């Protein structure tokens, strides 16, 4: 299986090249040259498979065995998911007769990004080790470096795209050969708990930089490093981001697993139809469901659930993919709680919500779906290569318009194709809080995190229109303890609610007492940070130094 860019660059890449590259040089995203179909007997053969067994089957449809053998793949997958606390990896829980949640948060950082990043870390390590073993004496080893800035605040501030998955990336890449991680935070400006969460990862390849400066200084330094071509080429800064193909691939597995889990939990498996509803920001999680559907996993339309950052929900209404909602009155920057329920925006126009991991302006993986829509919309009858070229040319044109005009309007035929496979709903913060309350008070007594609640709310909204045989599976993307502010706000009036007892996992306790490692950077200067990276990106750097 080989991969090509959505924007039409001619080259076909191996899986390894695709994973190490991240983004394509023409700005596009890599997709497989075809979506593989399932083996004829999959429903029978796979029905009792574990998460690991299913991963091996599904991933090997997308990875040539001469790149990674089946035995090697099994080893990588086993290692990746041995860090999960639940024996099923992603358990399916029943909330009521027609509603289930697929819990994706039993990995090391208690959020769904672990599913992809645990595997991605092992893939990077595997490829780099093999490449370096083939090098002659004196040749420089290949490295991968991750640099990010964090305010330490997991929610209420403008996080860069990369910081949304920074913690999951740290836990995916800790202790891996030829890989180092540098996390900048503004010294003394983050809360003690948050500082502890970052600095208590003491693996030799994870470096916390306490920068004398503000969060914006840290962000600026990271941006400057990314724009420094030479530095970026040496250190491969760009590979670990939300558009890496391996992340999408890893996430298709739990759609298959939950299909079998649900069939085992109901009495009439052959009569039901599954409807997945997915809380979405960068369209990664739900795109994985779309690949599962295209491969042949039986399901109804996929539900896109957004918060007030609703570029996707607006697309499914109008066929316009646009950063700013041109049909609504402009929100007042900085003015919280506008009367229409639209939250304040930061300088870039992102709305701050109670589900911050979905606070986005554009949705980075959406381009992949647009490519398939353009492909299907391209003139039938021409051969596959011609249609592929036509689709890529269309995407290059559309994404160019998004860049220059902030919007693109797709033809109605394309919108109809999108509506055939998806529906979309926007959920406000008030509805998010009400939903958390509703499921806590329900018979299931379930505590959902605010992202999961966005999905649950969208699912409840469309449920009355579903036929009686529909069963909804809502993807649950984070443990409620990660978003204590929203959960506590929703449940504080409930007499039977106790955050410590009902929500807080033991792993979160005792954090402040643990060992830490920090490198102090005495001024917010790019060169000082570069010096630290150059020095510690080698396998055996000393620790605890100051510059
Ligand atoms: C990243 C994230 C999401 C959104 O996932 P996408 O793949 O970007 O759509 C939802 N919930 C949580 C908790 C997340 O961390």
Helix content: 40-55%
Q: What's the total number of strands? A: 14
Strand order across the largest sheet: 3-4-13-8-9-12
The unreliable regions are: 153-161, 335-341, 540-547
Give the second-level CATH assignment, the architecture of the domain at 246-491: 3-Layer(aba) Sandwich
CATH class of the domain at 246-491: Alpha Beta
Bound molecules: pyridoxal-5'-phosphate
What class, by secondary structure content? alpha/beta
Oligomer: single chain
Roughly what is the average pLDDT, rounded to an integer? 89
Strand content: 5-15%
Largest sheet: 6 strands, mixed
- How large, in whole angstroms, is the Cα Rg? 23 Å
Compose a concise summary of this entry.
The protein is 41% helix and 13% strand. By secondary structure, it is of the alpha/beta class. The site of pyridoxal-5'-phosphate (PLP) has 17 residues, from helix 11.
